[in-house]
Automatic annotation (TrEMBL):
The lineage of its organism: Bacteria, Pseudomonadati, Pseudomonadota, Alphaproteobacteria, Acetobacterales. InterPro entries: UCP028704_OpgC. It comes from the Bacteria. Residues 387-407 are annotated as: Disordered. The keyword ATP-binding does not apply. This is OpgC domain-containing protein.
Length: 407
């Protein structure tokens, strides 16, 4: 662990090559996702969703887009669109296999627990009841990404977002055009209530046709056009007191809306009908504009409050979250499995000792996955050429770019 931490402190990330802010906050988002997925977890009252009109999912999608802009933008500049698209499609296939594997393991985990406890509540609550009724058809629909039980709807979202990035790579060097097309699609989707079909009825819980606007915003913030054969500066929205004030006001309004929805039932009953309807229909499925504004406002303020070379990003306290963020896919998959185990533990005993044990063990397990992933990566670097492009294929684990190449 100490060697891995020293590698983070003295490696390219500490010299400006890698943005450790994205890794650290992505790792924090992964931990929040685990906490929020455990019903009855008292620590869930302290995560992002309780203080802002957005949660770890929005943060994770924005940061995944940021990492994708770095990785695939560099591949585009070095080898052209065909190569970058091929790398993207290869990554999509990896995510697809990981999703199917996670689906099988999670279904077996929940099904076994339901049978052992002689209760179908788990199957009903996690939308796995149809799997027990029509297992062969449910498996086919899962392969087609049209059957998404609870907690298994995030990886399909990323798969579609990366597929949308394949043609969008051609517009990455024309940010105004790409942003205009993305925003237009977002507004049309929300206006016409468009969504991808779901086998069990309705549409996808995370509508990728709407969430793409957040993902592509991250891509454009991460992509740095080369200048003079070298990687140029990363795009940034300049700091301005008026923008900072507007972002702060947006977050305060979002916090007030969260508070009203959680504790203001009596006030909502007395509020004008249109206002009450507006405040209670801020949906997550279609990434409501209020949620989009909240995460962008938070990103703006945090991005300027935390400099790229902040010393604490290479500290021992931050290193576990950096390791988790750099290995997002295995950490996320482990978190889904651990969340259900945590639920079973808290259903047996939800007192403070068990609460503490579940949260510390969950965080420790996620960090361990990150440590193992980092160890394997160091082994690969010791055996492979520095310019090997394999790591460029992972938007959840971005490569470490230098000024001219990515290693």
């Amino acid at each position: 662990m100490r060697q891995l931490i020293r590698g983070l402190q003295h490696g390219p990330g500490g010299q400006g090559g890698r943005d450790l802010r994205a890794d650290a906050f992505r790792g924090l988002a992964l931990w929040f996702i685990l906490i929020d997925h455990i019903p009855g977890n008292r620590l869930g009252g302290l995560t992002l969703r309780n203080i802002a009109l957005c949660d770890a999912t929005e943060a994770f999608v924005l940061l995944a887009g940021y990492a994708a802009g770095i990785a695939y933008g560099a591949a585009l500049d070095r080898r052209g669109w065909t190569f970058a698209a091929a790398v993207l499609i290869r990554r999509v296939s990896t995510l697809y296999v990981a999703h199917i594997f996670l689906f099988v393991v999670f279904t077996a985990q929940v099904g076994y627990s339901a049978a052992a406890l002689e209760s179908s509540a788990y199957l009903d609550e996690l939308h796995l009841d149809v799997f027990g009724e029509q297992p062969y058809l449910a498996l086919l629909q899962a392969l087609l990404l049209r059957f998404q039980p609870a907690f298994l709807d995030i990886l399909p979202l990323y798969i579609v977002l990366l597929l949308l990035l394949v043609p969008a790579l051609a517009l990455l060097r024309r940010p105004a055009v790409l942003m205009a097309v993305s925003a237009l699609l977002y507004f049309v989707v929300r206006l016409l209530n468009l969504n991808l079909p779901n086998w069990t009825g309705g549409g996808w819980f995370f509508n990728p046709l709407a969430w793409q606007v957040l993902f592509f915003t991250g891509c454009l913030l991460g992509y740095a056009r080369p200048r003079g054969g070298r990687r140029g500066p990363v795009p940034a929205v300049p700091f301005h007191p008026l923008l900072a004030t507007a972002a702060g006001v947006a977050l305060l309004i979002g916090m007030a809306i969260v508070f009203v929805n959680d504790y203001g039932e009596a006030w909502l009953a007395e509020a004008p009908p249109r206002l009450a309807e507006l405040l209670t229909t801020i949906d997550k499925t279609g990434l409501h504009p209020f949620r989009l504004i909240s995460i962008l406002a938070m990103a703006y303020l945090v991005g300027h409050a935390v400099p790229r070379d902040a010393g604490w990003l290479r500290s021992r306290a931050a290193s576990p979250f950096v390791l988790m963020g750099q290995h997002g896919l295995p950490v996320f998959c482990a978190g889904i499995f651990l969340a259900f185990l945590g639920r079973l533990a808290l259903e047996m005993d939800d007192r403070w000792p068990m609460q503490l044990l579940v949260n510390l063990a969950g965080l420790g397990a996620l960090v361990l996955v990150g440590v193992i992933g980092a160890w394997y990566r160091l082994r690969e670097r010791g055996e492979a050429p520095r310019h090997a492009p394999a790591s460029a294929a992972d938007p959840l684990r971005p490569p470490v770019p230098s000024t001219t190449t990515m290693s």
